[in-house]
Structures are given as structure tokens and as C-alpha cells.
Amino acid sequence: MIRVNRAVPITGLGCLCAAGGSVPQVAETLFAGQRRVAWREVRGDRYPVFQLDSRSVPEGYYEGPECKRCGRLAVAAAREALAHAGLVAELLESRRVGVCIGTTVGSAMNNEGFYRDFRAGRMPDIEPIRHYLQANPASMVAQAFGLTGPCQTITNACSSGSVAIGHAADWVRAGVCDVAIAGGADMLCSVIHAGFLSLLITDTSPCRPFDRDRKGLNLGEGAGVVVLESEQSIRDRDAPTQALLSGYGNASDAYHISAPEPNGTGLRRALDQALAQAGLKPNDIDFINAHGTGTPENDRVEGRLFPEIFPDVPFGSTKGFTGHTLGAAGGIEAVITIRCLQEKRIPVNVGYQEPDPEFPGRPVLENTPIAGRYGLSDSVAFGGNNAVLIFQGQL
Amino acid sequence: MTDSRLSIAGIGLVGGFGQGKPSLLDALRTGGKPNGTVSVASPSGPHELSAYQVDISGVRRLVAPAALRRMNRFAKIAVLGASLALEDAGWDKPVKRSDVGLVIASGFGASKSTFDFLDTMIEEDGHFPSPTLFSNSVHSSAASHLSIVLELGGPCLTVSQFEMSTLSALLTARQWLLEGRVEAVLFGAVDEICPVLGYCYERFFGAEASGPIEPFAWDRQTAVMGEGAAFLLLERAGDDRPAYGRIDQITWTRSRHHDIPRDSLLVLGADGQTCYAEHYRRLSESAGDRVAYTPLYGSLPGGQAFDIAIAATAAEQGLGPHQVCCVKCDAWGNCGVVQCHFGREAHSPVG
What is the mean pLDDT of residues B307-332? Predict the structure, then answer.
């Protein structure tokens, strides 16, 4: 039985995605209700995507090997988070710092150009493979900041970013490291886009989470990172705490390789675990940042489960602003959840117009004030992995 | 004081040596060697590259055919290894529990399905990519299939950290157990060979090495690629006497800083790749006895899980010592150290 565990302080936040190149920019876009949709042509059809605009792209992002983009996104978000935490190089050097990054594209050896040459018998140079071996996102972050603690790149599909934060908190709590940089990073990738098209779960319009007429997801790119830090480390440098990670749950559906279990039994277990670890009851939660991809199946599960477990707790998805950033989603949404706790309000569930008669859950229709004590963010992944994070604000 | 040690309750091994304990013990007694070849394209024409390959036919004895229908080879290797570990521990299948965690460590994931999916993208001008291949190409697909087949509703994790995958994933498995998140963890390292990896291997290392691997020939490239699965059923160290012994410490470090206890057998993950040789050579200089099991299973990123499983099995059979330190190094200068005390007498009060 999971025990109530010590909450782990969060001292820094970093985020970049289609909604902006930094945490304040992302918050501004969300609360202004702005969608920054770009369009890509794939197999003759145009699809909306949520890509970084030119002002948000990290330096050198489009230079060099494409496979390093996920790592570059993670490094950019980590840089903002470390600056926010006030963890300068000398302080990092005197601490044991771990890195835990979730990704999907960042671990995939799916270099299309290389493979086209290989299958055509053109004996391609293996330089792209060398780059791939140097592109591990967690290792790239560690290298960028000269860190020597444990590294973990988590590949749990779309729950990777949430899982990374949950496990990094475990490391800090157990003393494996003093500081952990954790979150998720993913880039737009034509191979992955083709995969989602093959599953028939992409929308040709900007996505509509929880709406009756939703057709699927839109892909996005970005990274979201938090700095988790031990109480001792914070005391030693007299640093402010932004929030606490109070609870983390992780459970499997054990149901299907790509579809969620219709009754949400795995998600329910993950919610129970996170609440138990935080020592909270459902009515302690002030709001939920839903996974809310805009796919019929995902939203149906959440739209049924939330009103049942968390009656009257407002919820919404921010995928309408960010797109589905896959392995980065949990990291980006963790940052947004904490920012919402700090601002004591949550943004409109953009894209929603018509209630779905198949489930009772209704997302927030406008920017909504909240109490700012506890915020919950959940991730529902391909293959049936579910992850839940509970953050505490108002310290 | 919290006991942070882990008990090993069951082991499941699949590799070029065969599957299960009898095959491994044969290989331990006779010495291992590559058992197959992969056809590799090269500028001088196709040729055969030595490899340690898995025969997955045994999975049909352990898992219902219907459950295997949609699995790729990567997942079948994982299911075979996991099933053997559960069988070894005397557990029934399906497990049907949500207090058992599942942790998979893999260097390259389902690489064959990744490239098979690309084939479907490239053929027909990209109009008919396969959803089944896409679903199976993600790194977490083996964990997903395992959770379905074994009815494991607990926490699930897939880690891809190349050579440090096993060490990094073990850190999480330990935390799950210590925090009471689960009562047991089914932990496994899984890697698979495919033609593209074979091509890359040859371009990186050349085609000369035909095996067996010579792990202590520091200045010569003798690596031969391998595939397989090494599963451990892990529990919290408690009053029970564990079947194989325990994992005492899991340490992520920089190789130049680490001291190996001289009373431990040093199990090096040296796999014949000269790029890591200097790390291993330096570590072995400061240690007492040393051994490498890579000639039994080949060169693969998750090899450290094989080392732990093989050393535990050897100790259980009286073929190896009880105090063991398994070390794996990576290209980034990291070093993963797993200190173990094998044998049933590994039970001792927490000091």
C-alpha cells in the first residue's frame, strides 16, 4: 500500500511550445485564449500543427542533425527552469543533480533519409546514427550543464513527461540526488505524424477537446521542465519554493496496445495512488489539467471519470493551445498546472463548443478562478499507461 | 533504518545461449559463442555478420497463441524472458495484480518494427502506413504487451538510456519498492537485432569479429552484436530468504571516481568495443578477481541485467562467488555499479 510521502519542493519552471517561448509567454497566451495554429501538408491533406514560432525556437534548433531537436528543446526548457530556480553553475557543481526526461521522438531511431538510402542499397554513411547515439535527451541536458548525477530518458509514450517528474521526485525524496531536472520534450516529426494518421485519430481542424464533434488530436512540439530540489539544498541557499509535488500515481490499463480502457480503470488506479501519496481526498483538488487530446476515446474516459471521482471540480485541457506534444505533454502541463496555481485561475478549454451526450463532464468555458491549493495533471498514454501528478501551491 | 536492498525472487534469461537456466549453465560451463549470422549489405556485396540471436519459438509454450498474434518479435522476446522469470519464481500466469510494477530497459527499443513501419510509409508513396506496425514501434510496446498478457495493472516504465538503461531503470524499481508503491517489480532488459542495426554495427566496428567476444583484449575490436532479454523478479529485502540473493547497492557514478570493493568479483560489462575499453581497464586494475559474461550473450545496451542474472545463477549453482559487483560504462563517461550478495545466506539483519 502506498504511503503518504513527503512532498518534494519545486524551485524552477521552464517551458516552450507553440503557445510561447517561456513560462510567462505561455501563460499569457493561454489566458488570452489565443491559438497559434500552423498548417502542414501530409499526403495531400492539410493538418493543423502546433509548432514553435520563430521567436520561441531555441538557438541553433534548425541547424545540425534533426534528431537532436528533442534534446535541444529539453536543454532550452531546463535553462529557463534553472535560471528561475537561481541554480547557477557554481551551485549545480556543488550538488548531485539528476536528469529525468520523457520523450517519444527523442529515442526513436527513425531517420527517414538514412533508411531510404539503406533500403535502396545506397550504403548510407552512418553519421546520422552517430548523431542519434548522441541525441539522448536526458544525456544532452546533463552534458549542457555539466551534470554528473543519474540520467533517465523515459519512453512511456504520451505519459512520459509526467512519469519523468514523478520518478525524479522519488529520486530527490530518497536522496539519490539533491536536485533533479525533470519533464518532457518532443519535436514534430513526419514519421510520427504518419503514424497518427494511420491510426485515424488526427483532426483536420484545430482540435476540440471534450467537444461532441471532436475528431482527434493535432500534434505539437515543445518541452516542459521543472526543477525538483531537496529541502536541505533549498535551505542551504535560502531559495524560494514555487510549488510542491505532493502526489504521483502510475498505473496500467492492461487492456489494448493503442486504445484506452473504456472505463478508465487504470487511470482510476493512478488517481487513487496520487491522492494516497499526497494524503488528500478528491474534494481537496481545486482543478484538473486533463490529458484531453481531442480523440473520441480519450476524452470519453476522462469525461466520464472526472465528474464521478471529482464532482464539481473544474477541469480543462490545454491541448487546444499546445497541440499534443506526446512525451513532452506531461512536462508542459505540469508547468501550466503550477502556473495556474500561482495565478489562481485556469484557462478556457479552447475548442470546446458542444457538450457530448456520451459523458457528463463539461470543461471550463472561460478563464476560471480557482482556490490555488492543489492542482492535478493527468496523462493517458498509448499502450495503456496512466500517470497523475498532484501539485500544491499556496506555500 | 530503511532497508534499501532488493531480493531477487526469480530470473528469466533469453539470449544467444538459448533460454532458461539449463541453457545458461551449459554456456557457462562450455563458454559462449555467437549462434547465428545476420545478412548485412556492404559495398563489396552482402555478407554474413556473426551475432548472438534469440530463438523465440519457446514463447508458444508459455503464452496462448491468440495473445501472440499482434506482438512483434521485440515484445515476444520480452514476454518469453518475463514468463521464464515468473515461472522460476513459482508465480502463476497471468499475474492479475496491480501491486506488481513493470520496468523495461532497452537501448534501441522495437527497432525492427520501427523500420518496418518506415517501409509502409515509403512504399505506396506513404499512403498506407500500417497502424499496427506504428503501435508496435514505440519503445513502450513491449511493456504494453506484457501488461496485457500478464494482466499487470500496476505502474509501468520503459527506460531508454543506452548502456545505462539497466542501472537507471533499477534506480526506479528500487524506489517503487521502498515507497510501497508495489510489492514486487518485474524488471527486464530487452534488445533486438535487426538488419539496420547489423549494417550500423558493421560500419562502426567492421566485419572482422566473428566471436566469441574477447572482453579483456582492450586494444582490439571483438564486439559481436547480441539480442535477448534478462528479467529479474524483484522484491523488498525482508525476512524471507531470497531465491538468488539480493542487490545491495545501485550507484550511478563517473567511472574515474569509483572504488570497487576488493572482496567482490568484478563483473565487467566489457563487450569488445574498444571505445569503452579504457574505462573497464582502469576499473579492473583496482579490483580483485574479474570476469565478463558478454561472450555468453553478446554486445547489447541492456547487458548489465544479463550480468546480474548470470552472476546470480552462477552463485546459486555453486559456479561463482557470492559477493559480486556488476559494472557497465557508457560513452558519456558514466558508470553504473550494482553491488550484489548472492546465495540464500544473503539474508542478514539490517545494520
Answer: 94
Q: Is residue A46 exposed (0-12), middle (13-18) or buried (19+ Cβ within 10 Å)?
A: exposed
Given an 8 Å threshold on Cβ–Cβ distance, is A197 in contact with B155? no
Residue pLDDT, tens place only, B94-122: 999 999 999 999 999 999 999 999 999 99
Minimum distance, in Å, between the CA of residue B231 and any CA atom of chain A? 19
Out of A43, A115, A252, closest to residue B126 by CB: A43
Residue in A closest to B146 by C-alpha: A254
Dihedral in degrees, nearest 10, Cα atoms A211, A213, A219, A223: 0
Provide the pLDDT for residue B2: 62
**Touching B: A residues 226-285, CB under 8 Å:** 250-258, 265-266, 269, 273, 277
Spell out which residues of chain B touch residue A47, defining contact as CB-CB under 8 Å: none
To which H or E segment does residue A190 belong?
Answer: helix A190-198
Percent of chain A at pLDDT > 90 equals 93
Active site residues of A: 158, 291, 324
Q: CB contact, 8 Å: A120 with chain B?
A: no
Question: Closest to A195 (Cβ–Cβ): which among B108, B134, B145?
Answer: B134
In sequence order, what E strands does chain A have? 8-17, 38-42, 45-49, 97-102, 151-154, 179-186, 222-229, 243-252, 287-290, 315-317, 345-346, 368-369, 374-380, 385-392
Total Cβ atoms within 10 A of residue B168: 27
The answer to whether residue A391 scores a pLDDT higher than 80 is yes
Tell me how far apart the alpha carbons of residues A160 and B176 are, in angstroms, rounded to a whole number. 17
Residues of chain B with Cβ-Cβ distance to A256 below 8 Å are 148
CB contact (8 A) between residue A123 and residue B42: yes
Give the N- to C-terminal CA distance of chain A in Å, as an integer.
Answer: 28
The answer to whether the Cα torsion of A19, A20, A22, A23 is positive or negative is: negative
Q: Kindly indicate the confidence band of residue A45, based on its pLDDT and cuts at 50, 70 and 90.
A: confident
What span, in angstroms and rounded, lies between the C-alpha atoms of A366 and A107? Answer: 37
State the pLDDT at residue B347. 42
Q: Please, what is the average pLDDT of chain B?
A: 91
Distance CA A344, CA A336 (A): 12
pLDDT digits (tens, 9 = 90+) for B142-172: 999 999 999 999 999 999 999 999 999 999 9
Chain B residue whose CA is closest to A382 = B135
Model pTM score: 0.96
> Which of A2, A196, A383 lies at the smallest CB-CB distance from B141?
A383
How sure is the predictor about A169, in pLDDT bands with cuts at 50, 70 and 90?
very high
Residue A38: all three cell numbers together: 500552423
Q: Is residue B141 pLDDT above 80, yes or no?
A: yes
Q: For the complex shown, is ipTM > 0.90? A: yes
Taking a contact as any Cβ pair under 8 Å apart, which residues of chain A between 7 and 26 contact chain B? none
| φ, ψ dihedrals at A91, nearest 5° | -70, -35
Give the nearest partner residue to A136 out of B115, B161, B171, using CB atoms: B161
